[in-house]
Amino acid sequence: MTHWFHRNPLKATAPVSFNYYGVAAGPPASKICNDLRSSRTRLLELFTDLSCNPEMMKNAADSYFSLLQGFINSLDESTQESKLRYIQNFKWTDTLQGQVPSITEDEAKEVHRSLKIAAGIFKHLKESHLPKLITPAEKGRDLEARLMEAYIVQCQAEAQEVTIARAIELKHAPGLIAALAYETANFYQKADHTLSSLEPAYSAKWRKYLHLKMCFYTAYAYCYHGQTLLAGDKCGEAIRSLQEAEKFYAKAETLCKEYGETKGPGPTVKPSGHLFFRKLGNLVKNTLEKCQRENGFIYFQKVPSEAPQLELKANYGLVEPVPFEFPPVSAHWTPETLATFDLTKRPKDDSTKPKPEEEVKPVKEPDIKPQKDTGCSIS
């Protein structure tokens, strides 16, 4: 999946020591700070650890966030903020400005679930935390609502791609596959539209990816819709549907080339080189030729000048974000522990604030070599 889904670079972050000399005025406070430092370091290490699995990532994230919540929310479960809410600033980089391997069924399920969880996390941030920012995010920054919405929708679309691959392999009804492909194309179109008002200098590459995926799955929708029409003895309409699939597939091929030539954040994936991509081209060609043969020998139907309207609705398989909640506050946080943080001892010259000129080194992402391209096979 690494070389099929476009990804913006991993966000990098400046080191945080959690050393509050004078403020952390007792052993409980010092322990909280030490645990925060080690749990944050561990979480960041897992981002580039190829041996990391979803359970390891969740456990590390829960460990860190259960401790961090004592700096965010009041311990009495009221709506009040913690007295430590503004003691620490964090600095992050900005992701925009600053062949398909065979996978097992279990792996496919993990990819599908992980993308739904990711969508839920982005949704939670957008709805519950972005409104609380002291300074609204600047246009085009990661915490701006438009970018957050694009991430949510892209995660949903990519999760549905796994559903489509599975439906094709299990030979589900063409009508269902066409509907899922149509809904997925709409997701990609929505994500692209969300980014349309951003500066092309840093959004063009991402948008090319979203646009090519929209065309690709629109071609899938028309292809399988054509099969449905043929099964219903509507051969003329089936031919027109397949012709439309051919048009969108050719457009997706062109966009793949443009995507590869467009400069922008993130590594460049090569969708057109994947067997999953090439298989669709052959399927469209062969199905269209079959329809044309049968129309010449059996049906003798007129081919409409207008493409059929795709008003397809999948009755199952649609992806919704998995609701996200932070883990419970760590048991180490008690009123007595909080009392050992003395903000009156905070230095006037607050060294915890990152300096404006401080640079954050980019994350060195692992170079994952593509496996042999065996096509979109989920077994």
TrEMBL record:
Bias kind Basic and acidic residues: ranges: 343-372
Domain BRO1: from-to ranges: 99-379
Lineage, uppermost ranks: Eukaryota, Metazoa, Chordata, Craniata, Vertebrata
SMART domains referenced in this protein's UniProt entry, alphabetically: BRO1 (SM01041)
Database matches in Pfam families: BRO1
InterPro entries xref list: BRO1_dom, BRO1_sf, BROX
Name the UniProt record assigns to this protein: BRO1 domain-containing protein BROX
Superkingdom to which the source organism belongs: Eukaryota
Positions in coiled-coil regions: none
Listed PROSITE patterns: BRO1
